[in-house]
Amino acid sequence: MQRLEYDAYGGPEHVHLAEFSLPPPGRREVVVRLAAASINPMDWKLRSGTMKMTTGSRFPRAMGTDLAGTVEAVGADVSRFRPGDEVVGTTSMKAAGAFASMAITSESLLVKKPPALSFAEAATLPIAGVTALLALVQKAHLKAGQRLFLNGATGGVGLAACAIARHIGAEVAGSAGPRSIAFAQELGISPVLDYTTSFPSSLDNTCDVVFDCHGSLSPEQARRITKPGGFVIDIVPTPAKFLRSFISSWYKVLISDPKSENLQKVVDLAAARKLVIPIAKTISLAEAPSVLAALETGSRVFGKVIIAF
């Protein structure tokens, strides 16, 4: 079996393909033979060492979190799955390992894949879909008729948030990079602003919820475009942002939680075609190191990149 792994925290030069073997599953663990995995910015942020206080210092380390595939084996206390089940979910942040022909993860991070979804479609959902759902529904309580502003509207989380907001019945405005503006307009986001420039004063105090999917808005910038009583959510944490989140009633930092009960809601929306995250590109595992490096250094795609097995 092969997987992507890295031998030190740092840049993409540490990533390589390697042969590996999995241990037997723990009592509540599931072994999944992968059909598809999707790439998230979190994958290279973990590899860079941003979260090394959590992920530890043992190397080599595997990469990848979002996965879809077929159950190969289950631990003694697993009750919801059996070999042959088609599933979608994540690995833990610490263990990772979804960029591999086989992965092991907790039963609590998986749900069954509906027949209505392909493996590739299912693999787009866990991190991006759950993050968007928790931000808009659990944190912001977005309602029909309200106005949402998405900063970074054409990333995976932004695309998921746009679909969920439309399902709720909210209006969606947003920002994107210069090369992504036309794509955002095609999705019906209006207006679409260039996030590399200053936002016009006409946007001041016009949005019920500001969702910073890119992490590039300062709290002051976000507050300026939010209506009185509105809400700002950021998903790119820093110590300063966490501190503001603790002391603020209007500004919150969200850490996604892709446990099965959250993921099931996202998968149900996707199976009903109320949530579709576009697939920009499908690649092989051998192509993944160069594609990951390109994405990390600024290459843009309109949708999610899928690794197919």
Could you characterize what this model shows?
This protein has about 300 residues and is of the alpha/beta class. It has 2 domains: about 1-125 and about 275-309, Quinone Oxidoreductase, Chain A, domain 1 (Alpha-Beta Complex), CATH 3.90.180; about 130-255, Rossmann fold (3-Layer(aba) Sandwich). Helix content is about 30%, strand content about 30%. It is built from 10 helices and 16 strands. Strands 3, 5, 6, 7, 8, 15 and 16 form a 7-stranded mixed beta sheet that branches. Helix 8 (about 240-245) links the parallel strand 13 and strand 14 (about 250-255). Helix 4 crosses helix 5 (about 155-170). The longest helix has 14 residues, at about 125-140. The mean pLDDT is about 95.
Q: What is the count of β-strands?
A: 16
Radius of gyration: 19 Å
**CATH-defined topology of the largest domain:** Quinone Oxidoreductase, Chain A, domain 1
- Largest sheet, if any? 7 strands, mixed
The total count of helices amounts to: 10
SSE sequence, one letter per element: EEEHHEEEEEHHEHEHEEHEHEHEHE
The helix content is: 25-40%
Q: What count of structural domains? A: 2
Gap from first CA to last CA: 11 Å
CATH superfamily of the largest domain: Medium-chain alcohol dehydrogenases, catalytic domain
| CATH structural class of the largest domain | Alpha Beta
Shape annotation: globular
Whole-number mean pLDDT: 95
Given helix and strand content, the structural type is alpha/beta
CATH architecture of the largest domain: Alpha-Beta Complex
Q: Low-confidence parts, pLDDT < 50 over ≥5 residues?
A: none
Strand content: 25-35%
